[in-house]
Write a structure and sequence with these properties.
Elements (H helix, E strand, L loop, with lengths): L22 E4 L7 H7 L4 E5 L2 H4 L2 H12 L3 E5 L8 H14 L3 E6 L1 H15 L25 E5 L11 E6 L4 E6 L7 E4 L9 H20 L23 H23 L4 H21 L3 H11 L18 H6 L2 H8 L4 H10 L12 H15 L5 H4 L7 H8 L3 H4 L8 H10 L5
Parallel strand pairs: 1-8, 2-3, 2-4, 4-5, 5-8
Antiparallel strand pairs: 6-7
This protein binds nicotinamide-adenine-dinucleotide (NAD) and fe (ii) ion.
Length: about 425
């Protein structure tokens, strides 16, 4: 059982947590309901954002038809960049500003949904690009008010971006990812249709499943909200508020579903039951981490993906090297969970049990080892690269990886224990190879 005192009052920390979620419709066939929903939100002229590959699939045809049937004037923008950059965000924002839209529909993975959030933001409240980007990298300015309605339709079983107030991009000049975080970025409605999983390449299912896994385990083992300083006002309570009783619910169920279905979903494209369950796990973990926050594996991933040299994974566009988000995260996770386990061993042990580890004979002292061993066995079963070495990094890169990740305070400060620059370098070193 999880430690019943994890959220015990601390006297100096916060005494409340918030729950913010998009409205969600889940089920096979619901993409055909996008038009009706758009009309309900008062949209008359929408931009439908997608990427080139998804835009050519039947899923896009279903959404276009649905918008047309509802009498909505819809213009397609399919120039979204997979693993978006500041430049690709700006291009989408320019398109949105010039188009004079009163609503946004995104159809795609996290790359598309995040780009749509940014386009909505910068076309509604124009500003220099770094204005709203997380401090200390950007200005961290609050978004001045509500955005236009955005209906997000995820087509990967991964990021959960359809219900988070987060948009992530690669700041190319810095060679690291960073993001914009605000409750105002959260889509008005998520339309989650498991039918989209039928066309997913195996490697995209695998990478995005590990993104889900790390969202759930990181949120479950994050610093409790009671140990974060109380905010000066309601609007200052961060979305990365730390583990809390609400996020625990989504994390537990997402981890259980991952333990039961992820290998099946990756290895058998015809296993619709497994792929549907992964879609639900992704949404649940998105609801959870959108209200708790991830920690070190995600913080460390931002320089892992930003410093990519020549990695070109199967199943992804091959026009430029990319390290898919889920791969850049999970490469760090076993190393991090070995390190963080002493801070809340019960939670690490629980997590490995939900993920399907055999806990017979295991005690809290083994928690970090048991959890990382379970994750490593799932990585092997789904042909995920062997740690940072498998993504093209070596000992000589640890300095640059550490420098890129150390400013990611939103994430690193949400870990259950303090992470110095020295320990961060050690975490990268221990993530170089797992088998
Ligand atoms: N905003 C958030 O809360 C959040 C959380 C986690 C990750 N992210 C970000 O999301 C991005 C990654 O998103 P992702 O993992 O969902 O993948 P993605 O959007 O990058 O897409 C991966 C590939 O799969 C293809 N694809 C997508 N759906 C498909 C389908 N149904 N059939 C066939 N091909 C399909 C795409 O065309 C692309 O080539 C990263 O930039 C990451 O940083 C955001
Ligand atoms: Fe993620």
């Amino acid at each position: 059982m999880a430690c019943c005192h994890y959220f015990a009052p601390t006297g100096t920390g916060d005494s409340a947590f918030s729950v913010d979620v998009s409205a969600i419709t889940f089920g096979p066939g619901v993409l055909a309901e996008v038009g009706d929903n758009a009309r309900g939100l008062g949209i008359s002229r929408a931009v439908l954002m997608t990427d080139k590959r998804v835009g050519a699939l039947e899923h896009a045809a279903v959404v276009k038809q649905s918008l047309g049937d509802a009498g909505i004037d819809a213009v397609v923008y399919d120039e979204v960049c997979v693993e978006p950059t500041d430049e690709s965000f700006k291009r989408a924002a320019r398109f949105a500003k010039e188009g004079g839209f009163d609503g946004f529909v995104s159809l795609g993975g996290g790359s598309v949904i995040d780009t749509c959030k940014a386009a909505n933001l910068y076309s509604t409240y124009p500003a220099d690009f770094l204005t709203y980007v997380n401090a200390p990298i950007g200005g961290g300015a609050p978004i001045p008010g509500p955005l236009k309605p955005h209906i997000a339709c995820p087509t990967t079983s991964g990021t959960g971006s359809e219900c988070t107030g987060i948009a992530i991009f690669d700041l190319t000049a810095m060679h690291a990812k960073t993001g914009i975080v605000s409750r105002n970025l959260r889509p008005a409605r998520a339309i989650v249709d498991p039918n989209v999983t039928r066309t997913l390449p195996r490697n995209v299912v695998a990478a995005s499943a590990f993104d889900v896994l790390s969202h759930a385990v990181e949120s479950y083992t994050a610093r409790p909200f009671t140990k974060r300083a109380a905010p000066g006002g309601a609007s200052l309570r961060p979305q990365s508020q730390g583990a809390n009783p609400w996020s625990d619910i989504g994390c537990r169920e997402a981890m259980r579903l991952l333990g039961a279905y992820m290998v099946r979903a990756v290895t058998d494209a015809d296993d619709f039951e497994a792929r549907s369950q992964m879609m639900w796990a992704a949404t649940l973990a998105g609801i959870a981490f959108g209200n708790a926050g991830c920690h070190a594996p995600h913080g460390m991933s931002y320089s892992v993906s930003g410093l990519v040299r020549d990695f070109k994974p199967e199943g992804y566009p091959d026009d430029r090297p990319i390290i898919p988000h889920g791969m850049s995260v999970i490469a760090n996770s076993p190393s991090v969970f070995r390190f963080t386990a002493p801070a809340c061993p019960d939670r690490h042990l629980d997590a490995s049990g939900y993920l399907g580890a055999d806990l017979r004979g295991a005690g809290v002292d083994d928690a970090g080892e048991v959890l990382s061993a379970r994750i490593i066995s799932l990585m092997k079963a789904t042909d995920i690269p062997n740690g940072l070495g498998g993504l093209g990094y070596g000992e000589e890169d640890i300095g640059a990886l550490t420098e890129g990740a150390f400013p990611q305070r939103r994430l690193l400060d949400n870990a259950p224990l303090d992470i110095s620059k020295e320990s961060l370098a050690g975490l990268y070193k221990d993530a170089l190879a797992y088998w």
